Amino acid sequence: MATPATNYVDxxxxxxxxxxxxxxxxxxxxxxxxxxxxxSGVADTETAIEAAAAAAGGWAxxxxxxxxxxxxxxxxxLEARKEELTELxxxxxxxxxxxxxxxxxxxxxxxxxYGQKARDHGGEVKAPSGTNRQxxxxxEPLGVAGLITPWNYPIAIPAWKLAPALxxxxxxxxxxxxxxxxxxKAIVEALDDAGIPDGVVNLVAGPGSEVGSTISGHDDVxxxxxxxxxxxxxxxxxxxxxxxxxVQTEMGGKNPAVxxxxxxxDEAVDIVAAGAFGVTGQACTATSRxxxxxxxxxxxxxxxxxxxxxxxxxxxxxxPDMGPQASADELEGTLDYVDIAVDEGATLATGGERVDVxxxxxxxxxPAVFSDVDPSMRIAQEEVFGPAxxxxxxxxxxxxxxxxxxxxxxxxASIVTDDLSEANRFxxxxxxxxxxxxxxxTGVELHVPFGGVKNSSSNTYREQGDAGLEFFxxxxxxxxxx
Length: 482
Ligand code: NAP
Ligand code: MG
Prior knowledge:
- The chain is an alpha/beta fold.
- The chain folds into two domains: about 5-250 and about 460-480, Aldehyde Dehydrogenase, Chain A, domain 1; about 255-435, Aldehyde Dehydrogenase, Chain A, domain 2, CATH 3.40.309.
- Helices cover about 40% and strands about 20% of the residues.
- The chain is built from 15 helices and 21 strands.
- Strand 15 (about 370), helix 12 and strand 16 (about 390-395) form a beta-alpha-beta unit.
- The chain starts with 6 loop residues before the first strand and ends with a strand.
- NADP nicotinamide-adenine-dinucleotide phosphate binds near residues 150, 151, 175 and 251.
């Protein structure tokens, strides 16, 4: 059976050898099929990897400015489609139009940024320890990069892997998330329009267990960049490192926001609510624990509950405060954690219930606030990946830091305080790859490193900024005697 030509392999849009397809549905209107895709398997993935391997030499030899010009044209093509892609992202993943618009713009900005970086990228010349000699370094691509991405930032994350991989001269195979592949595919369409040579970028959609694991285990793949859950990430890491590949895995979080006795409570509530309930809580950097000083605890909980209850929930296309969760499984995961938390003795102060929205039948849930949470409870230890925040009471700053660090994860962390000393001590002591003072745990800039520690990351290389270029390059040291 012919499958839709949704894969991009060796410069051609093509179907899958499996003859199978899969549907992508709107999480706000579950009977709406947004797109139908070829469901690729192992053989389709191998064909794409072969194409990328064949194109590697030519692309590596292409001058940086020429590679950069293609990335810049890609940014322009995405920019021309911004409104359409914003709507498509919302229809597929569920986030609000405002959130999608910001994410599409991020992808555009990333392509402009690395378009310039491609020109700039190079090595250094050092003083030689002899006359008539030269010693210098070059930055060379690794070869074929396999990129495996999650559904929650379906255009920004493919962009922040594709652009630096291509800027530095690698060829790529992108495996987008099954729940939301279309905006990642739109980047590949833009690269195609922008004149990327055949085989340099390849897209294969299909189940992670087949497409993703073929990428992480294939001999012709030189580097694997993965973002997703910790469970899958550890498997990808083992598989890729067994094969001697360079690998980075960016995974889950259990991100704390500490609210000290010196915090402005109104400001703290705004910061925590934005971090916890923005993008329906489905961010790796989402605030999922508020660690609050006893003196302000009751006031904080009351205000956070009021804030949560005022959040308007609806289909992302209507641009409410909060859209649905991305799938039935994600919704169920959140509702399961509500039961688990209550069973363990936490108080469900508000929310955590499936919500009926007029004219929609999606995976809507009301934002949940748990109080009386003990740091050892599962709701305080495990990633929920929905709009839920556990509020933990602490007696002093030292206990706040201990609780903040008392989890397996270490992605993002924030402190809300007017005390400069507390703010700086928190930056010193917290175990996290990203630390924020008086800012929400979510939201990052594209030109500085991003990544986590502990179970949040392989902690091999950071992504974004110059760190993104580092991951995709190796250094050659050249000695010349003239
Ligand atoms: P996921 O279930 O781990 O999936 C991530 C990607 O891996 C998807 O493309 C998935 O394919 C693929 N995959 C699944 N099984 C695989 C296997 N055996 N081998 C290779 N690849 C496989 O994560 P998700 O549900 O899409 O995303 C949510 C998670 O991502 C959360 O844990 C969140 O914290 C994390 N995240 C982390 C960051 C960060 O930078 N630290 C950023 C965003 C999200 P399918 O789609 O086909 O299953
Ligand atoms: Mg998942």
